[in-house]
What does this fold into?
Amino acid sequence: MSSPAFGQEGRVALVTGAGSPDGIGFATARLLGRLGACVVLAATTDRVHARVAELRRDGVTAIGQVGDLTAEPVAQALVDACVAEHGRLDVVVNNAGMTSAADPDTFGGDLSSTDPERWHRSLARNLDTAYLVSRAALPHLRASGTGRLVLVSSVTGGVMAMRAEVAYATAKAGLLGLARALAVDEAPHGTTVNAVAPGWVATGSQTDDEAREGAATPVGRSGTTAEVAAAVAFLASRESSYVTGQVLVVDGGNSVAEQRAPRRD
It folds into this structure.
């Protein structure tokens, strides 16, 4: 079931935002599990238990936890439950953010339409969750000796921007600062901290407009969740030990394409 390259045998991985059957979080948990990790999935609703059942049918050791990770006690309880179940924690993938089954509002808007409440709720969902889970997990990642912390950011905010996404772009850019700061602090402990920045990805929440944007990328399509998961899996591997504080962009070349007008030939 596992591969000798980037294997996760004997390791425990926690993946947040893993409730959607066709989202990046579940694709990541599935890949890490197939590579040999025991995985803990976190989500805001009970649907995470259906994802766990799918992984178990695949032969993956998996458990699920439900909770709102914008609350510090919930984030701490998630990490505690993971360690209580498996005795260790080696990999954390902070994927929670953007959308939530418990609250489908994405808090989009330009600055004038983003009042303080929407601003703070967006930052809590997209940035605070990563901060709180990372802080709770840090002692265990240090104890691992080969801890891996991966933050799922976005090209929005850290690389480029899109219309009417002020709060989201700010939060996702903040994740890159968090990754770089933690990378410097945690390197002496053997823990690497990196970010993945997906572009247009065909998830269940992708809109028709987003799909059209994906078709306009240099590769001519949106990415898949499996392609993003592959990037996360590399950064979560033992073999990535000399890569830290970096941002791996997964966007089909969209952020480097200078010419945007349709070709005439």
Q: What stands out?
A: The chain has eight helices and seven strands. Helices lie at 24-34, 48-57, 72-86, 116-144, 155-158, 166-186, 208-215, 225-235. The two ends are 47 Å apart (CA to CA).
